[in-house]
Amino acid sequence: MSKLIQTLLFISAYSASAFAQPVNFAKVTDNVYAFVGEIDDRTKANLGLNANIGLVVTSAGAVVIDSGAGPLSAKAIADGVKKVTQQKIVAVINTGSQDHRWLGNDYFAKQGATIYALQKTVDTQKKMLNSILQRIKSTDPIFHDQTPFYAPKPFAGNEGKVTIGGMDFEIKYFNDAHFPGDAVVWLPEQQVLFSGDHVYLDRLLGVHPHTNAVKWLDAFNQMAQLPAKHVVPGHGAVADMKKAQAETGDYLAQVVDAVSKAVEDMAPMDDVTPSRDWSKFQHLKHYQGWHGRNVSNTYQRLEAAGM
Fold first, then answer.
1. pLDDT of 290 over the 60 cut
2. Do residues 276 and 240 make contact, with C-beta atoms less than 8 angstroms apart?
3. Residue at 71 is within a domain
4. Among 17, 179, 253, 266, fewest CB within 10 Å belongs to which?
5. What is the rounded CA–CA span in Å between residue 91 and residue 285?
6. Nearest CA to 157 among 121, 126, 210?
7. Rounded to whole angstroms, how far apart are CA atoms 6 and 204?
């Protein structure tokens, strides 16, 4: 067997294993669907799709909410769309700057889709590009083929509106959330909220060094005023605002309040967790590994701000 044939066979087998977990969209309400990704880490098997992706079917074509972590996951998303509708994907809306929110843009743009985002989101995508690429590429060699593509005409300000096939899509920024410039997509007629990384369900949210928990809490509280019947979170199962409040809003509020009190009292960071009862959050996946980091990053930020 020649070296070329061996190489081709290896690539074929590698590609097949990469698509071990296809994308399947489930109905949320009429013409609105969601793919719920794994609530664990990015892997070759899940194509970096450890996050949720939205699909809205309109008379003018399909609209995808967030585009995946590169061309492999974008193709898997497109294949998943075909299981629901034969409508062409005409638009993609980005809610954020993490890899699985937008690195698939290039794939969809080449298929003729228009990419939409707020300018605030695009600014963060550009600013954090190197760290975003380093993280996804470090997951597995299959993620090395990345061509960043930004929304060519992003919406200025805190809101953008677009009507596609008679359906209204509102892109809203309330404040920085998991990443600076995070946004939500609101379908006012259907009362469906694609929250992006404003909401984590079934797994604990993550407060990173670039995350401002105070701003995230403010963004969540504003977002929660929307009369949403269905919340498609950034991570976890589709639910309602009551669950979003319990697993994201209440946790953020308790972290911010407990850390703020400790900083004001000049108490050590180690006093934060014992000062409150966290039992209602301990069922969330990754609580044991992430809660301490969330407190630490929030404490350091508030201490540096002189609270």
1. yes
2. no
3. yes
4. 266
5. 33
6. 121
7. 44
**With bands split at pLDDT 50, 70 and 90, how would you rate the model's confidence at 14?**
very low
User: Which residues lie below 8 Å from residue 262, measured CB to CB, with a gap of 6+?
Assistant: 268, 269, 271, 272, 275, 299
Q: What's the CATH code of the domain at 214?
A: 3.60.15.10
Does the pLDDT value for residue 13 go beyond 60? no
Domain of 83 in residue numbering reads as: 17-240
Residue 289 placed within a domain: no
User: Comparing 270 with 18, which gets the higher pLDDT?
Assistant: 270
Which tokens belong to 268?
């050590």
Q: Is residue 259 part of a domain?
A: no
Q: To the nearest whole percent, how much of the chain has pLDDT over 90?
A: 92
Q: Does residue 2 carry a pLDDT above 50?
A: no
Work out the percent of the chain whose per-residue pLDDT is above 70: 93
Query: Which residues pair with residue 200 across a beta bridge?
Result: 235
Does residue 248 form part of some domain? Answer: no
Q: Are strands 184-187 and 192-200 parallel, antiparallel or unpaired?
A: antiparallel
Task: Give the side-chain half-sphere CA count within 13 A for 243.
Answer: 18
Query: What mean pLDDT do residues 229-246 have?
Result: 98
Total domain count for the chain?
A: 1
b/e code 228-258 from CB counts within 10 Å (16+ = b): bebbbbbbbebbebebbbebbbebbebbbeb
